[in-house]
Amino acid sequence: MKIDIEKLKKIVGANNVSDDIADLYVYASDASVHHALPTAVVRPKTIEEVQKIMRYANANKIPVVPRGAGSGTSGHTVPIDGGIVLDMKQMNRILDIRPEDMLIKVEPGVVDDDLNRALKPLGLFYPPAPASSRIATIGGEIAANASGVRSVKYGATRDYVYGMKVVLANGDLVNLGSNTRVHSSGYQLERLIVGSEGTLGVVVEATMGIRPLPKYRCLAVANFDKLQDAGNAISDIISSGCEPSMLELMDKIGIIAVNKAMDLGLKEVGAIILFEADGNVKEAVDFEIEKMKKICKKHNGKDIKKSYDLVERTKLFSGRKKLFASLSQYKE
Amino acid sequence: MKIDIEKLKKIVGANNVSDDIADLYVYASDASVHHALPTAVVRPKTIEEVQKIMRYANANKIPVVPRGAGSGTSGHTVPIDGGIVLDMKQMNRILDIRPEDMLIKVEPGVVDDDLNRALKPLGLFYPPAPASSRIATIGGEIAANASGVRSVKYGATRDYVYGMKVVLANGDLVNLGSNTRVHSSGYQLERLIVGSEGTLGVVVEATMGIRPLPKYRCLAVANFDKLQDAGNAISDIISSGCEPSMLELMDKIGIIAVNKAMDLGLKEVGAIILFEADGNVKEAVDFEIEKMKKICKKHNGKDIKKSYDLVERTKLFSGRKKLFASLSQYKE
């Protein structure tokens, strides 16, 4: 594919374009099993630059694949037909935080954990965090409709999108949705963009919902000899009207993989369930945790541990956090 | 407009088609200010009937406007170009309730309050209820992206849609989304349908999220001499990380209108705020209510009353519940 590198350098600056093979390899894969070399990598810093790149690519029939951290597992950042990979990580400003509306406005390259670090001192958080939140960008999470361990209570990315600026394939900039939480006029195209994996346009700005950070979080783990029992416990927890802020299952292969990769010394039982409750009142968090503990016990759950302490919780959770990476290097 | 009434009668039965002027008048308006007579009213009972009607209308270029209860305020059920009004109220079966997945499957004509009456004994509820929930149908709520007083905590209709069967203009039946809560493949067309006011197709089945019904609800009201103070209290409540399950403001005109229409004897102050908290643990509900009371007082709120009792809560809320109807008959 013929790409005019000099033209792209004029748009974004010489440092922000590369067709060096070493650079291209970096952008050839993500956390999926797919792999394909782009023809060039371009790193825009402004909406106008994105528009100019898209206009050039459109006029010359060059495919463009937007990319955040490349931590997605569905392969949506892999340039299967070559062309331009648009690295959005430099557009990483938090433009606005409006606690009175529980809304933020961000550029797509903002990293999830950075966003939550900025929100924490204000007693706020952005809930959908996937396991890769340390590197995942909000733009990538929108593209993938990312969800995470707290989505069982707080929902996925799609539940947090209210407004968006999107650059279309022809370079046009469109405003979708609104800057408010309540709006019902027109088609909700902003939610159509969620999960569209960059195929409908390049998200260059997003207005997203946030939530008050709960004061207490209590995490518990339960071991099960039988996977079936653990599955039944989960069904029972949900149908009993519990409101876990996390409810995760690790099966035996997962446990063994994590032990091998991290030497955690987890008991290699049939399955582990991790369950969390959160809230501003300890009695209410206790109530939820005790209710879920009881259900686990009913389904032969054992060795149940719980903790409110951040360090202890992080330790209890470390196996689940590294599950995906551990499985990728697991051999029987 | 020429419509073959006999043909429609063959599809849905003679009792389910009308071009009688008295019937047409009933379908000429909704809760909006708009008004237009349809050419015929058709009441299907099955998906196949809807498909046949759409095929006939499409072949003959006859506009079709789907309609639930006609309680919408945006005029989306008014047939501005005449044609067929498709009354969906006979397709009113609750097809499935799955507490273990917190999902239900319903036909579009199910009335919101009927759905919640079916869910209540199971300890569940469908939260987005608009003020018209006594008559509003789920299909109409999807068409309008309806929200209600509890949307401040629980979100609008769009946050509850997971899967859908839709009959397109040409009569084709399409499955959108999924029967599960977690799905990220393909475009999320099911959420594009939400708020599209019947313009993209006829929703004939929907898989919707539900929530556990909280054990306690506490409603409080506060009077304010100045509207500005009430507005500031609301901003402060939201930005302080409170989680009201309802947060409504009535201004002076609203209060006077309700008093005139219902003789409620509300104090005709500058504004009233109604705020509610809910949860399974009374301490937590109390905590939220007391936090919001304190904020109201800080902004000169007074005469604060609160109640956990359903009868008392219904009384406190009756003014707000009838606000829309009262305003419609209000004269200065």
What share of residues are in beta strands of chain A? 15-25%
The CATH architecture of the largest domain in chain A can be given as 2-Layer Sandwich
Largest beta sheet of chain A, briefly?
5 strands, antiparallel
Q: Unreliable runs of chain A, pLDDT <50, ≥5 residues?
A: none
Radius of gyration of chain A: 22 Å
- Specify the helix fraction band of chain A: 25-40%
The secondary-structure element order of chain A is HEHEHEEEEHEHHEEHEEEHEHEHEHH
Task: Name the largest protein-protein interface in this structure.
Answer: A-B, 43 and 43 residues
Give the number of helices of chain A: 12
Sheet with most strands: strand arrangement of chain A: 5-6-10-8-9
Summarize the structure.
Two copies of one chain form a homodimer. Chain A has 332 residues and is of the alpha+beta class. In chain A, 33% of the residues lie in helices and 23% in strands.
